[in-house]
Amino acid sequence: QGHGRTQNQLQTQPATMTHQYPALTPEQKKELQDIAERIVAPGKGILAADESTGSMGKRLNPIGVENTEENRRRYRQLLFTADQRIDNCIGGVIFFHETLYQNTDDGTNFSQLIRDRDMVVGIKVDKGVVPLAGTNGETTTQGLDGLSERCAQYKKDGADFAKWRSVLKISDTTPSELAILENANVLARYASICQQNGIVPIVEPEILPDGDHDLKRCQYVSEKVLAAVYKALSDHHVYLEGTLLKPNMVTAGHSCPTKYSGEEIAMATVTALRRTVPPAVTGVTFLSGGQSEEEASVNLNAINNCPLAKPWALTFSYGRALQASALNAWRGELSNEKAATEEFIKRAEANSLAALGKYESSGSGTAAGQSLYVANHTY
User: Fold this and answer.
1) pTM of the complete model beyond 0.85
2) Rounded CA gap, 48 and 70, in Å?
3) pLDDT on residue 258
4) In this predicted structure, what is the pLDDT of residue 16?
5) Is the separation of the CB atoms in 356 and 371 below 8 Å?
6) Given 16, 34, 94, 202, which is the most exposed site by the fewest CB atoms within 10 A?
């Protein structure tokens, strides 16, 4: 009574609805879903060739190659011009801004070359991690300013999907609630902007493998992070069928004394995804997170053979785990280009089989067995 309305008046008030203002037309939704499905068609995954200029330096310096634009172009050309054996293995290639506008020796634009091979061109659109004040060394990712205009231009220039990397750490004090929420929201805002411009967003909340935490702890944190990400995507009305998720596999920290089998990693990973990722999401393209080439293939294969129901395509979006042996074989020499391309093809074929659950490991031989872990990895 004292609230100024009688019981009777309260009952006749119309129920307040949450309202829907469609963010995308049916045509826009169909285009986004079609692009996402092409990228993760059976046996296909993503070549992440979007290393920033600084990251390329970290790849080239150890093999004695100067980090120049021309050397970066020559190296990426050797990947993009691999023969038709990769056509059934690679559904999409993520470019760095510079690469999108580079050409092959004979003047063919890289992005045109990739599209002519019926692969989808992607572009890295974030502007790197920045400190999140009031946390123990945690970060958020910048790059929302001007993103819509950049996406519109990239779409014109042939890119149909994008990548944005958020980073979280596991320690006694992290990830904090603040870092989880802030990164979930920035990923959702990025995804929404991409979709408005006809670009499929890859949502990448990477939980770093640094630390001595065990498998259970990584699984628990992965579930909390992914739950927050999908809540934010829902809040921002992101169309899930027109997205891809790029998560870490659930693994123990690099300093954890316990070594887990591929089957244990697969069970923890698939369980975490089943608890948090809606079946509407078209595909999950795992990052390799510093696993060796061989580990990345073996674990992906185990994930695809995990005996739980898996409603999404489970495949790869690998950088180092597709390139380490190729870089090693190349060393900047013209005469090594053929051998380097062969190494890349070998890894692409291995991961294509792993995405189908049909990869048989030959044991960890040469470079393929070497750890690609970089402490506190930053792009």
Assistant:
1) yes
2) 19
3) 97
4) 78
5) no
6) 16
Euclidean distance between CA atoms 36 and 192, whole angstroms = 15
Q: Look-up: residue for tokens 């316990």?
A: 258
Residues that are catalytic: 204, 246
Q: How confident is the model at residue 370 (pLDDT cuts 50, 70, 90)?
A: low
Q: Which of 331, 309, 267, 244 is nearest to 64 (CA)?
A: 331
β-pairing, 200-207 vs 161-168, is: parallel
Q: Which two tokens stand for residue 140?
A: 């958020």
pLDDT at 230 exceeding the cut of 60: yes
In degrees rounded to 5, what are phi and psi of residue 7? -55, -40
3-state secondary structure the chain: CCCCCCHHHHHHCCCCCCCCCCCCCHHHHHHHHHHHHHHCCCCCEEEEECCCHHHHHHHHHHHCCCCCHHHHHHHHHHHHCCCHHHCCCEEEEEECHHHHCCECCCCCEHHHHHHHCCCEEEEECCCCEEECCCCCCCEEECCCCCHHHHHHHHHHCCCCEEEEEEEECCCCCCCCHHHHHHHHHHHHHHHHHHHHCCCEEEEEEEECCCCCCCHHHHHHHHHHHHHHHHHHHHHCCCCHHHCEECCCCCCCCCCCCCCCCHHHHHHHHHHHHHHHCCCCCCEEEECCCCCCHHHHHHHHHHHHCCCCCCCCEEEEEECHHHHHHHHHHHCCCHHHHHHHHHHHHHHHHHHHHHHCCCCCCCCCCCHHHCCCCCCCCCC
Q: In whole angstroms, what is the distance from residue 328 CA to residue 345 CA?
A: 14
Token reading at 34: 């079609």
